[in-house]
Design brief:
With 413 residues, the chain is mostly helical. The protein is built from 17 helices and no strands. It is found in: Cell membrane.
């Protein structure tokens, strides 16, 4: 049975999961809320703390840069502490730094505390994906769909809650994360059992060596440039959109809802009928075209809103297909592959917001979207030029077993 056929066969059992999986999924929703939470309040923070738009975009950059760098080391940490302790440390760090960000008095302080938040986010996200894959029933395909559903839901709810609480005070969304992450911490502590086997320490170099694998390096390269498009759409758009916090929140709630729907319901159907690489090579140009359209309609509110929502629909497909591809691309342990890929992916997200804002200030608001479109187009070129490296992504079979040791084993070489 092929990986794509397995995803369809496993679909009916996606809701029949252990309590531990649901606890991690809930925590994942809250963790991904943190990405889009500050989106609706960027203009408000800039005005309240007397910061420029580019300075406020560093709220994304510090968070994503630290997340990306730390991702290289999360498999090393989790292989020594075990997934449960790693998840709980990550959640605790998010609680602490979100609280500190909420009480900050300057944009520089918020940027710094968002960096600490990113460290906690890295420890949690990469470990959560590997843990869900190892613990979920229904195989890898079901686990990834569940994880992507949590991602989509978190990204959808984050801007909405950010807009609702941000319309009261820019500090409100940060305090909201503190409460929700504290609940997630308790859920993980109660429902995720202790590891039955002692973690096998991985090598510190494992994620770096993993990027030497042609398949993983190719997927990471695609994701680097694709994520630039992702975060230009998410982080830069609040400024030309021209809405208040609530209006921005509602717009990106629609964006995130579209992302969640296509990641869970559309992507599996496409990969059941088409090769994963084919789906990537269709979706990437569609995203680039959507970003070009956003540049054209940058001064037309309804047009820009439509481009944002359509972008979410395409992004949901790309997120799921890329994540599935990474999990199937090599015989490396899941935690190592996830850490290496995610590290590079988040680097693209870190670059995008301040660069887009600077380009918009120097050239025009439309130019920021065209920069994003060119970046996504480069990702498409990589998928075509190095397509031979992705043969296993299309042809590899999904084994009908739970690879629990993938959570802890660090280096398969």
């Amino acid at each position: 049975m092929t990986a794509t056929a397995t995803s369809v066969a496993a679909k009916p059992s996606i809701l029949k999961q252990p309590k531990a999986v649901w606890a991690i999924a809930f925590a994942s929703v809250v963790a991904f809320m943190g990405i889009g939470l500050v989106d609706p309040i960027l203009p408000t923070i800039a005005a309240s703390l007397k910061a420029t738009p580019t300075q406020s975009e560093y709220l994304f950059t510090s968070y994503l840069l630290v997340t990306g760098v730390a991702m290289f080391f999360t498999s090393w940490v989790s292989s020594r502490l075990g997934p449960k302790k790693t998840l709980m440390i990550g959640l605790a760090l998010i609680v602490v730094f979100a609280a500190l960000a909420a009480t900050s008095g300057s944009v520089q302080e918020v940027i710094g505390f968002r960096a600490g938040w990113g460290l906690g986010n890295a420890l949690f996200i990469s470990t959560a994906l590997a843990t869900i894959v190892g613990a979920a029933s229904g195989g890898t395909a079901s686990a990834i769909i569940l994880y992507e559903a949590a991602l989509g839901l978190g990204i959808a709810i984050g801007p909405l809650i950010g807009g609702l609480l941000g319309s009261i005070s820019w500090r409100g969304p940060f305090f909201g994360v503190v409460v929700l992450m504290a609940i997630a911490f308790i859920a993980i502590a109660v429902f995720l059992g202790a590891e039955k086997t002692k973690p096998v320490p991985s090598k510190l170099s494992a994620p770096f060596r993993a990027l030497g694998r042609p398949a993983l390096a190719t997927l990471a390269g695609i994701a680097l440039f694709y994520n630039i498009g992702f975060f230009v759409l998410l982080a830069y758009t609040p400024y030309p959109l021209g809405f208040g916090a609530l209006g921005i929140g509602l717009t990106f709630f629609g964006w995130g809802l579209g992302l969640a729907i296509t990641s869970v319901f559309v992507a599996p159907r496409l990969t059941a009928r088409l090769k994963r690489t084919t789906v990537l090579r269709v979706a990437l140009p569609l995203l680039a075209l959507d970003l070009v359209a956003a540049g054209i309609f940058v001064h037309v509110q309804i047009g820009l809103v439509i481009c944002v929502v359509i972008g979410g629909l395409v992004l949901g497909i790309l997120n799921t297909v890329l994540t599935e591809s990474v999990m199937e691309a090599t015989d490396l342990p899941r935690a190592v592959a996830s850490s290496a890929y995610s590290a590079v992916r988040f680097m693209g997200g870190a670059i995008a917001p301040p660069v887009a804002t600077a380009i918009a200030a120097a050239v025009s608001p439309s130019a920021a979207y065209w920069f994003a479109a060119v970046s996504v187009a480069i990702g498409f070129v990589i998928s075509v030029a190095f397509g031979r490296n992705l043969k296993r992504v299309d042809d590899g079979a999904e084994a009908d077993r739970v690879e629990a040791q993938a959570i802890t084993v660090g280096d398969a070489d």
